[in-house]
Amino acid sequence: MCKVLLADWVFLRAARDIEPCEELTQFYCDIRMPVEMRQKELSDLFGFSCTCPRCRFELQLESPSRDASLDASLELWRRFYSCEVPLVHQRFA
């Protein structure tokens, strides 16, 4: 899907046919940012907190009251969705 902004209008163009009642979503910010940064940006710029499944999941993982067995999953999640380029930080350390 591509997005074009024109004054107060937003035009979206789908890359494929959309089924009736199919949900469309868009990102308001860079989804690679940590959940706390995304939530702050959404609150500051758009006045809402996101409650999508991804944000709820990440907030649950970041919660201090989470089950300790989730720690390994959280580390995998952070590495997978990180903006960090693998091994580059080790070469320049």
Overview of this structure, please?
The chain is an alpha+beta fold and 93 residues long. The chain has helices at 35-46, 53-62, 71-81, 88-91; strands at 2-6, 9-13. Helices cover 40% and strands 11% of the residues. The chain has a two-stranded antiparallel ribbon. Strand 1 and strand 2 (9-13) form a beta hairpin. It is elongated. It starts with a strand and ends with a helix.
* Mean pLDDT across all amino acids: 79
Return the structural class: alpha+beta
Fraction of residues in helix = 25-40%
Number of strands: 2
Low-confidence blocks of residues = none
Oligomeric state of this protein: single chain
Shape: elongated
Strand content: 5-15%
* Cα radius of gyration in angstroms: 17 Å
Largest sheet: 2 strands, antiparallel
Side by side, the strands of the main sheet go: 1-2
Number of helices: 4
Sketch the topology as an H/E string, one letter per element. Answer: EEHHHH
Spatial gap, N to C terminus: 39 Å
Short description:
It is built from four helices and two strands, in the order ββαααα.
List keywords for this structure.
93 residues; alpha+beta; two-stranded antiparallel sheet; 4 helices; 2 strands; 40% helix; 11% strand; elongated
Topology, please?
Elements: E1 2-6, E2 9-13, H1 35-46, H2 53-62, H3 71-81, H4 88-91
Antiparallel strand pairs: 1-2
